[in-house]
Write a structure and sequence with these properties.
The structure is a homodimer.
Chain A: H1 2-12, H2 19-26, H3 30-37, H4 40-61, H5 72-89, H6 91-99, H7 104-107, H8 109-121, H9 128-137, H10 141-167
Helix pairs in contact in A: 1-2, 4-5, 4-6, 5-10, 8-9
Chain A binds a DNA duplex (30 and 30 nucleotides) through α2 and α3.
Chain lengths: ~170, ~170
Amino acid sequence: MLEAAARLFAEQGVEAVSMDQVAAAAGVGKGTLFRRFGDKSGLAAALLDARERVLQKAILHGPPPLGPGAPADERLTAFIDAYFDYLLEHLALIRMSETAAPGARYRIGAYRFWHRHVAILLGATPDPEQTAHALLASLAAEHVAALLPELGEQRIRAGLLRLAHAAMPCPSP
Amino acid sequence: MLEAAARLFAEQGVEAVSMDQVAAAAGVGKGTLFRRFGDKSGLAAALLDARERVLQKAILHGPPPLGPGAPADERLTAFIDAYFDYLLEHLALIRMSETAAPGARYRIGAYRFWHRHVAILLGATPDPEQTAHALLASLAAEHVAALLPELGEQRIRAGLLRLAHAAMPCPSP
DNA sequence: TAGAGAATCGGACTATAGTCCGGTTGTGAC
DNA sequence: GTCACAACCGGACTATAGTCCGATTCTCTA
């Protein structure tokens, strides 16, 4: 079922494929598809799951600066870089998983993970949770997809890193 | 037509009202409604138009600090405060106008206006356009709507102002 | 006022996300 | 082997955004 979805999405683009098509290609009924994944954003999330876990594992147990052991500002920079790579690689799929249902982005477990990680790295700021949400807002698939044609990958990445640096409290030497 | 839409939206909430209902209440056919407004986000944008113009006029010609005449950082603070008020007042409607069509937020004229204004105020930073987009990302209706139950109005507002301040280049005295 | 042409209207039509219920298949007890 | 029960499956069904074309009305000219 996931294979069929992945193949169709790759061939025709995530937007252009209907759930009926996926069900037909997978040889199951629509009911089964929806019972398994909830909605289209759930299907997208399931397809991203494996890739997501790789990044999460690198953050929790991998080598620094992405993993533990480096100073917070370096870890934040590494996270933004890595997440931005992941985002660009799967932009259409992530966008679908974030926007199919209203508010989907903020409910799914992955967002909670990224948010918690960034908030911990920002621990020394006045309101780490709010600041983490604000930083992640600039990493929303919808936002990046809209800006990509206008600004290009390099300017967006540089801007994100600059903003993250500005949000960190200056580590007085 | 706009009156009927405004009444229905106020009574039942923006999400719960279908375009069929609006057309029926306005005494016109669906075709007319869509020809006039394009889609549901266009209808929402039309309803917001008057309120939007008030804020835009205050920015262009009103008294400082929102209008011209104050230092850039004070104007930015005033803008975020005023826009956040406007956003909270019409959250559901703005959310509809931003999210009904994919990428709608970044295409509508109003976003261009806010972006240009913020970019001008950030003129002294390395990449004002990118930074303006990043700040406005935290003012997206979808984002604020998702954070409101978790953080509350005060924390969000304070965080926005803090981030804007951090993004400004320090005005050396 | 009559008629031609243009602009506008309205509701039937299509496409798609998501729901629901009757049928089917697997499982365990006797 | 067979019956009862449960879990699962699939496609018909609903709701809604958005399209399209025949019908209507408006306007301008003679």
